[in-house]
Amino acid sequence: MKKFDDILRKSEEIKDYTIFDVNLEWNQFSAMLENNLDHQSNPISTSEVFSIEDKRHIIYLLSFAAVMILVFASLFLFSKSESNESELISKSDSESIELIDGTKINVSPNSTLKYYTNLEYKEQRFVSLQGSGQFDVSRSILPFIVYHNEIFVEVLGTSFKILQESDKIKIVNISGTVKVGEIKNKDNFRILKEGDVFHYSDGLFINPADSISNKSINAYTPAPLNKEIENSKPVPEKNKEENTAIALKGRKYTLESVINNYLIKFNKKKIKIDKKAKPDLNKIITIDDINKPYKSILEDLKQQGVIDFISGDCPDCFIIRSPEKKN
């Protein structure tokens, strides 16, 4: 063994080589294992880790958390159960109110307005009105809608009135553009420009400006007859009776108002006028239902002898022209 040590000391390459005592190392390792086993057989108790004061703090925090959960749950249920709607009822005097979106409403006497009061609903801009009222709607990209019996009024920002008049509803547009439609049939609507007035009754939207009053009809004087008409054959009694029956049924309009404000306005791509053979737009005509299909209105006008029409370039397209003169 001494010779082996001398060799190790003299060799330059392995002069730092260390000789370990295997028995000593093994004994140290065995002692370490025994210590670990002793620690595992006697684990540290929780009382050594948490003091009594720490336990009190933990119990307090858990109790506080439980109470807060109950409080928030109660508030949530209460907020859900309470009504987010408010109702303004005006009796003998008109009442004014400003909604959370800035819209100002003047509710007429004997009228009721239902509206949202919770800020959660500030982006749901709709109210319900029974009776009459005037609206000054704050401008927004979100539409403001008023529901009134059978109709709705939709705007982005404008001023208008809704007036209940016995069996009809009157809509007066003060400024901007207003869309008025029927709730059960949203395809039945009208667009009101500034100053327009429309009446609604039994599914019909009527513009009084297009109607001719009885006074105007009585004062109406037809244009002088030309020779061809003067020399034409007298109208048979049977045709006179049919024309009288037609005249007594419906409302009076000028031909111009029916063509421009109804037929062309709502059917721009399907109705045109023959510029070379224009009908007499000053004629007084009668329409029983101005909201019926445009083809039915064309047939009525043709039957009354004020227009003729031919097929256009597309299906269901028509060109209005003056009626053919009969010999």
List low-pLDDT spans.
212-233, 237-248
- Order of strands across the main sheet: 1-4-5-7-8-11-12
For the largest beta-sheet, the strand count, sense and barrel status come to: 7 strands, mixed
The tally of strands reads 19
Strand content: 25-35%
Average pLDDT works out at 75
Radius of gyration: 45 Å
Q: Which fold name fills CATH's third level, the topology of the largest domain?
A: Jelly Rolls
Overall number of domains: 3
| CATH class categorisation of the largest domain | Mainly Beta
3D structure, described in words:
The protein is of the alpha+beta class. The chain has 3 domains: 2-80, no CATH class; 85-206, Jelly Rolls (Sandwich), CATH 2.60.120; 214-321, no CATH class. It contains 9 helices and 19 strands. The longest helix has 30 residues, at 52-81.
List keywords for this structure.
Jelly Rolls; 7-stranded mixed sheet; 9 helices; 7-stranded antiparallel sheet; alpha+beta; 3 domains
Offer a quick outline of the entry.
With 327 residues, this protein is of the alpha+beta class. It is built from nine helices and 19 strands. The strands form four sheets. The chain has a seven-stranded mixed β-sheet, with no helix packed on it.
Write the layout of secondary structure elements.
Layout: H1 2-10, H2 22-41, H3 46-49, H4 52-81, E1 85-90, E2 95-98, E3 104-107, E4 111-116, E5 126-130, E6 133-136, E7 144-148, E8 151-155, E9 159-165, E10 168-175, E11 178-182, E12 189-192, E13 197-201, E14 204-206, H5 214-219, H6 227-230, H7 237-248, E15 251-254, H8 255-266, E16 271-273, E17 284-287, H9 294-303, E18 308-311, E19 318-321
Parallel strand pairs: 5-7, 16-19
Antiparallel strand pairs: 1-4, 2-3, 3-6, 4-5, 6-9, 7-8, 8-11, 9-10, 10-13, 11-12, 13-14, 15-17, 18-19
